[in-house]
């Protein structure tokens, strides 16, 4: 992997990617790009620009945004009449569609429109190329007056039309699937758009097994608990397809996390973080996933070490990094049940030196952790202060048109408010409100930026029911969490305790065996693991 960084830095030098032997054997339908996959996107540009364009698209398909922008700019220099070079730059400026609309500032969208204008000015000699540019235009143009849902639906429809018009255009199919998969409704538990995208991509995965975008977008399409196992073939393939792309090394962990393959997730994210020194956020994002995985194996020391390595990097002004900054220290404390530590948790980087106001959905992670910590410590007043902070952050998210995140923060505020009732000794009211919050959380989907909630609302409900001497009800809630979040340590440990309290010794022993297996390489003593070993021995 020593060549990774030099490869990504030298994106405009096509000779770095194509050896003479490969150049002699490539067909009209394939252009091999070692260590970034195989991409062939035909454009009406000169031969050198075509080669560079394929390289740039390989970078795009692995979400290497700065490198892709630079690569498409290089294409335009190689062939000033290659209008599609500016289309590629526009697509790369938009960045991750699974993160939209966060980050789509008016300034960014204006830059996209300028790139589309440059594409038209440079020349689009075919109707197909004009249609590619027009499809992005329905999303970016008029952004000041058209709401995001209208624009993303129009983009989705335009890409589907383009795919239908050019049935032999593989890239049209892949990019149409990408936008369809990203244009999902978080409350749609039938996963209509995601499965529609997967239906496009699955045949292409067989036909083009070395295409980075096909494997990548299949992973995204299956990144949901009930269908996650369908994504395992793509997850196991993607890092091998594009090992010079940090995001390609990380993405398989989305599926590994969903199915509870913690060791695989750690290995994937460790390598992604290692090669991400030039990335604007991949290293921090990968480390958050790695921290989460270590904690499920009772490897608290390893999680802390990973977090420290991430924190030693320069602070990055980016939502993905901001989320990781807030989430990693919160996870360490909450997974350990260190309520007093969580109650005192500060933002890192510190609030007065980092632009947290730009990322209310990231700062909300800190407020949620402090709210849970203060409530579980018995300080209802302090918990309600964090609830009020969450409400303010929710309103900030609404003002920024971050509709999904505003909804998530509202659920977080409800969780903290419910736990404050517990701190007040109002157990029945606390349970009722936690039940409602858990139902709301279950009705939506997690965002791709996070491996999972800090503590699932239903897990907090199960814990509260157990404390209220309702072990059978608690066990049922824990079982629901384990179905959605397989191999989650705290859920299994809690379920074991609930089963014992309910007198279900058989289930308790089975759960103890699961916990012992999960913690077989633990690096930190946990009472629950000790109890599981004792229960198994007994």
A few lines on this structure:
The chain is mainly α and 538 residues long. The protein has a two-stranded antiparallel ribbon with strand order 1-2. A hairpin with a 3-residue loop joins strand 1 and strand 2.
Describe this entry's structure for a reader.
The chain has 28 helices and two strands. By secondary structure, it is mostly helical. It folds into three domains: 4-259, Serine Threonine Protein Phosphatase 5, Tetratricopeptide repeat (Alpha Horseshoe), CATH 1.25.40; 314-455; 461-538, Serine Threonine Protein Phosphatase 5, Tetratricopeptide repeat (Alpha Horseshoe). β1 and β2 form a beta hairpin. α12 runs antiparallel to α14, α16 runs parallel beside α18 and α23 packs antiparallel against α24.
Helix-strand pattern, N to C?
Answer: HHEEHHHHHHHHHHHHHHHHHHHHHHHHHH
How helical, in percent, are the residues? Answer: 55-70%
What do we call the CATH topology of the largest domain? Serine Threonine Protein Phosphatase 5, Tetratricopeptide repeat
List low-confidence stretches: 1-33
Radius of gyration using CA atoms only: 24 Å
Q: Largest sheet at a glance?
A: 2 strands, antiparallel
Supply the CATH architecture of the largest domain. Answer: Alpha Horseshoe
Task: Write down the domain tally.
Answer: 3
Structural class estimated from helices and strands = mainly alpha
Name the overall outline.
globular
Strand order of the largest sheet: 1-2
């Amino acid at each position: 992997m020593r060549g990774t960084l030099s490869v990504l830095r030298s994106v405009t030098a096509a000779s770095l990617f194509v050896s003479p032997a490969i150049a002699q054997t490539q067909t009209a339908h394939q252009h091999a790009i070692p260590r970034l996959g195989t991409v062939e996107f035909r454009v009406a540009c000169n031969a050198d620009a075509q080669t560079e364009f394929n390289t740039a698209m390989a970078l795009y398909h692995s979400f290497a945004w700065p490198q892709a922008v630079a690569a498409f700019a290089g294409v335009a220099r190689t062939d000033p009449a290659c209008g599609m070079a500016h289309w590629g730059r526009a697509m790369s400026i938009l960045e991750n569609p699974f993160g939209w609309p966060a980050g789509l500032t008016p300034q960014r969208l204006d830059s996209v429109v300028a790139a589309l204008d440059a594409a038209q000015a440079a020349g689009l000699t075919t109707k197909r190329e004009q249609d590619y540019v027009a499809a992005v235009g329905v999303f970016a143009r008029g952004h000041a007056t058209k709401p995001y849902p209208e624009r993303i639906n129009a983009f989705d429809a335009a890409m589907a039309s383009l795919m239908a018009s050019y049935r032999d255009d593989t890239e049209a199919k892949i990019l149409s699937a990408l936008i369809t998969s990203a244009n999902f409704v978080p409350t749609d538990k039938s996963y209509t758009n995601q499965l529609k995208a997967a239906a496009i991509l699955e045949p292409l995965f067989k036909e083009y097994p070395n295409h980075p975008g096909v494997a990548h977008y299949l992973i995204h399409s299956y990144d949901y608990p009930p269908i996650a196992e369908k994504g395992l073939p793509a997850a196991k393939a993607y890092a091998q397809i594009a090992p010079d792309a940090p995001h390609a090394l990380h993405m398989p962990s989305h599926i590994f996390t969903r199915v509870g393959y913690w060791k695989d997730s750690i290995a994937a994210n460790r390598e992604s973080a290692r090669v991400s020194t030039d990335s604007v956020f991949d290293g921090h994002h990968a480390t958050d996933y790695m921290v989460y995985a270590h904690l499920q194996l009772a490897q608290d020391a390893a999680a802390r070490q990973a977090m420290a390595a991430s924190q030693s990097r320069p602070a990055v002004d980016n939502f993905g990094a901001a989320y990781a900054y807030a989430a990693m220290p919160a996870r360490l404390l909450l997974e350990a049940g260190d309520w007093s530590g969580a109650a005192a948790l500060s933002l890192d980087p510190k609030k007065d030196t980092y632009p947290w106001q730009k990322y209310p959905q990231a700062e909300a992670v800190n407020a949620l952790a402090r709210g849970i910590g203060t409530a579980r410590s018995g300080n209802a007043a302090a918990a309600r202060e964090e609830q009020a902070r969450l409400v303010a952050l929710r309103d900030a998210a609404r003002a920024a048109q971050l509709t999904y995140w505003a909804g998530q923060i509202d659920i977080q505020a409800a969780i903290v408010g419910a736990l404050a009732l517990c701190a007040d000794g109002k157990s029945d009211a606390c349970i009722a409100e936690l039940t409602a919050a858990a139902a709301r959380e279950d009705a939506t989907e997690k965002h791709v930026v996070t491996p999972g909630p800090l503590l699932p609302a239903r897990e907090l409900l199960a814990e509260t029911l157990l404390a209220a001497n309702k072990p059978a009800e608690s066990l049922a809630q824990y079982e629901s969490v384990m179905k959605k979040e397989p191999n989650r340590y705290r859920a299994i440990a809690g379920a074991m305790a609930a089963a014992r309290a309910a007198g279900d010794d058989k289930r308790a022993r089975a759960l103890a065996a699961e916990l012992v297996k999960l913690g077989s390489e633990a690096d930190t003593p946990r009472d629950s693991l000790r109890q599981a070993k004792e229960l198994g021995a007994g």
